[in-house]
Structure formats: C-alpha cells, structure tokens
Write a structure and sequence with these properties.
Helices cover about 40% and strands about 20% of the residues. The longest helix has 22 residues. The relative contact order is 0.15.
Length: about 475
C-alpha cells in the first residue's frame, strides 16, 4: 500500500508535500502498521530510551528571568540531524537557547548550534564592553556559559571557527549599536556569510558538508521581561500561560513556519525574482522543487551565484548538484523573522521544539500536557508510580506528580503514545522499535526544550522594582 501511494505521488505529481501525504497515510493506518511483528519493549526499556538524552538545569541567581529549563532529544536519522544549545550570559543576567533542525545531513545544524548564540551574544552586548573584552584577547567562549554541551570540533575546524569569530567581532566593534532584534538578525546573517566564506576559502570535507547541508533555527533570548524570538524555517516556540480567572492553561504560538503554507513567505520569495519565474521559483510546494523551507542557514546551492557553483561545487559533486531553473540566485535567506514579547507573571513556560515534535501534538495540546504535568490535574494512572512522585523544585507553587520528572521527556512520551485514554505504552513501544531503515517514515528527529520563567523576577520587573529579590 505504501509503495502504491509513493508511486502515485511521483507519477501524478500530487499538489501536496510528499512528507505530509506519507505522514497522513501512516497516521490513519497506524493500527495496521502496529500489527507488524515488532518486539514489545518493556516499560523499563522504554524509560531508558526516552530518558537517554534528557537534561535539567536550575538557575540559582535570583535576578535571572529564567528559573530553569529541561530538554530532551530522540533521533530518527542516524546521525540525528537536530541539535540544541542553551547558555547564560557572563556579563549580564540573561538566558539564550536554540533548537536547530538540519536537513541533507547533520553538519550545518551541528555547526550553527555551536556558533550562532556566540555570534548573537557578541552583537547584543554593549559595544564598549565588547571592546574591553577584545583588549583582553577574548575568544568565542568569553561571552556565554554553555550547558550540556557534549560536542566539539577537531582542532583544525575549531581554529578556523575561532579565526572567523575574531574577524566578526572586529567588524562588529566599529559598528553603531542597533536595537536588540536587529542585532540578532545581523548575527544570523553574519554567521551564514562566514559559513559561505569558509567553504570557498578553506574547502575540505567538513566545510563543504556544512555548505551543502542546511538547518532551520529557533532562538529564544530572555532578558528582564523581554522575550526575543528569532526563527527561520519550521522549529516552533509556544508560550504557556496560566489564566487564574478561568483556571485554564493558554497557548500562544510565537513563531511562524517559513514554507509554502505561509502566503506571506511565498509572496516574499516571488517578489525577489522576475515575473517569468513565478512558476519555477516555488514548485510542488518547495523552493525550486527541492527545499521545503524558505528560510535557512547553509544550503548554499540555493544562494551562491552560478559562477561560484561552477567553480567550487560542480568539480566536487558533479552537475547533479546544480538546481533546475536556477536563474537569479539567491533564492534562500538566513534572515530570521523576529518577535518581541513582554513577559507577565501569568507566563509560566516556553516550549521550543523541532517540527518532528509538532507533527504529533498541537501547541494547545502541548501546553495543556505541561500544565497538567505541573499541576497534576489530569495525569493518567498508567503514567504514575509512587516511587517516582517528585516535584520540580523550580516550579514553586506548582507541584508535579507525574511519572516523568523531566517535562520534555513527558512531552516526548505523550507525543508518541497519546490516546483517548492517556498515554498508551504499546504505542510508545511501537515508535521506539520501528527498524532504522524505515523509522523516518513514521517520525522525524524530535528535540524539545521547556523553559520555566522566574515568576518572582518577572513580577518585580512588572511593578518596576529595581531588583528581583
């Protein structure tokens, strides 16, 4: 049946994205697929798999607007093409984190997850402080304190990236300071430009892998009551708020997807090219018929001039690397869409996740799952064990009483196993035991970060108090 569906999509060129058609087919037929002779994993082994990459961090600073965060990741591709990063600022009370969804390989997502937030930090700190740090021979690690950072580059690549960063801050130090959102946008564009220059000027297996792959990004920067969101592509950030007047959790999506479903994005792309390209720039709901997202870092085969492609790409990858209807590049931009939100005491948490998670749950459902996880109002008995009833200390007045202490893990479990009766173990087991050669048809890489806001700090700032104590 799946073979027939895929053949029809290719032959008939159906006017919907292939991934959506396949996913819808699989979702409606999941019970039949679950009858495959897959092993039933024990609850113990399911927990090991779900919790393998979970992480929790609580901040001790009273004036930090973020109380703590929890993250988790479940791969589908091997290696996983998602990445994540979290850090606090060394020279002020602020927090920044990011979710990165790679495509055509993990290289670009890995590179920007290690670099983008450092570029942002250098752009948004005070210029005078930046100059003072430069006088002390600062490097890329002089501005942020990273958490749960388990990846590193080989020495040659690390040296190249440091060289690019030093050149970047030298250029930045002589520029006038702009407002924060503009500085974040410029950081995205500067890093993307450096990725391009590194591939052209220092071509090797890694720099070319970064250039030929790509990644979407969603960055959250929190300072005081200001929550800045910068997004390219399909990663999504959803704000969870508690309304005490109606005793209800409310979800607010703070990012938009940059793909063919977004009419404004389609109009933007088409407006940047001649009218006779209106049927080729976006075709079959994809950029030049190939790329699903309309904004991303990397993917330079959608950005470089034809001359650059002929000189650097064709000799390595052949003519097949050239895209059809590639008349007036660039077709793709790394410029993020910005959103500024003023936090209030009712804003309790922010869910950031790659699109592999949002394929399973709506923003409203995800917020309610975390709300129930916090307040213990509607936790299924199958999710609870008395031995593991522990509260998240940084939630203050909101004790939790669920099976998963980590909220990102709880979201992951719920996404894979949600049913009308709660979380169904057999569904979770099924999604975790699908063979590697077909698992991508059932689920994408999933990366989740849940950020909890410091309500005492936010309340104090709301009432114009000088310090959050």
């Amino acid at each position: 049946m799946l073979t027939i569906l895929l053949r029809d999509m290719i032959v008939n060129k159906l006017q919907r994205p292939v991934s959506i058609l396949v996913r819808n087919f699989l979702c409606t037929s999941v019970r039949k697929w679950r009858q495959l002779s897959l092993p039933q994993l024990s609850p113990y082994y399911v927990n090991l798999l779900l919790r393998e990459n979970e992480f929790t961090y609580t901040f001790t600073e009273q004036d930090c607007p973020v109380y703590g965060y929890e993250s988790n990741q479940l791969g589908s591709n091997k290696p996983c093409e998602d990445a994540r990063a979290e850090a606090s600022f060394m020279h002020k009370s602020a927090f920044i984190c990011g979710i990165f969804d790679g495509h055509r390989g993990p290289a670009c997502a890995q590179a920007i997850s290690k670099r983008l937030m450092h570029y942002i930090a250098a752009r948004i700190i005070d210029r005078q402080l930046l100059k003072e740090q430069m006088q002390q021979y600062c490097d890329s690690q002089s501005f942020l304190r990273s958490y749960n950072d388990k990846m590193d580059f080989v020495s040659d690549i690390k040296d190249l990236y440091e060289y690019s960063f030093i050149k970047f801050i030298q250029r930045t130090s002589i520029l006038d300071q702009s407002e924060c959102s503009k500085e974040i946008q410029n950081a995205f564009l500067c890093l993307d430009s450096d990725l391009s220059k590194e591939a052209i000027n220092y071509p090797n297996a890694w720099t070319m892998a970064v250039a030929m792959s790509g990644a979407t990004a969603c960055i959250a920067y929190v300072e005081g009551r200001d929550l800045h969101l910068a997004s390219t592509g399909g990663c999504t950030a959803v704000l969870g708020s508690y309304n005490p007047e109606i005793d209800k959790w409310e979800a607010k999506e703070l990012t938009t997807s940059h793909d063919s479903s977004n009419r404004r994005e389609v109009t933007r792309v088409l407006s940047q090219h001649p009218r006779d390209e209106r049927h080729t720039a976006i075709q079959s709901h994809r950029l030049l018929g190939g790329l699903q997202v309309l904004r991303a870092l990397g993917n330079f085969r959608y950005k470089w001039s034809n001359e650059t492609m002929e000189k650097y790409i064709v000799p390595v990858y052949g003519e097949v690397a050239k895209l059809p209807f590639y008349y007036t590049p660039p077709y793709l931009t790394a410029e993020p869409e910005m959103k500024l939100y003023k936090l209030t005491p009712n804003n309790k948490f922010l869910i950031m996740a790659s699109d592999g998670f949002w394929n399973f749950l709506t923003p409203t459902k995800a917020v309610n799952v975390i709300g129930d996880h916090i307040t213990s109002k509607h936790i299924s008995d199958s999710d609870r064990t008395a031995a593991e009833d522990k509260s998240l200390e940084f939630l203050g007045d909101f004790p939790t009483n669920s099976f998963d202490r980590n909220a990102a893990t709880h979201l992951l479990r719920y996404a894979l196993g949600a049913s009308e009766y709660g979380v169904e173990h057999s569904k979770v087991s099924f999604y975790l035991s699908v063979p590697q050669n077909v698992v991508r048809l059932f689920r994408d890489d999933i990366t989740i970060t849940v950020i909890y806001f410091n309500n005492d700090c936010i309340s104090a700032l709301t009432h114009n108090e000088p310090r959050c104590v």
